[in-house]
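Residues pack. Consider this:
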Amino acid sequence: MFTNILVAVDGSEISIKTLETALSEAKVWNAQLNVVYVLETGLFDDIPADETTEYIRNLLEQQGLNVFSYAEKRCEEEGVTLNTHFRKGHAGIEIIAAAADMNADLIVLGSHAKSDIEKILLGSVTTHVVRHSPVSTLVVRA
């Protein structure tokens, strides 16, 4: 039985599917749902700050807000309690930290990164979470 579910989203199609899976689990267990979006700050560490990087950062932040809006709408439709969490840093580390901060007993996340380049640069967030999470993890495949 799960009472506090965390779902990690990144705005991709698989993260929407992941959100729907987490929403279904929350309904089954009458659990609270927490949606976390992590802005990968590591993407910008080695790039000189300029207007372009700030523009990209703003786009990514807006992507997170758009996912939160979608999650709020879906949870309201399904009658599930929702909290949203925006974090910055390494996605894998931040997802595990968020789960600990909110005492989540289940983490739900998608099976792949948004692009092959992101996989090469950052590694697999899902693999990191599955290997290091102290709580159950449900991986939704694309």
The chain has a mean pLDDT of 88. The chain is about 50% helix and 25% strand.
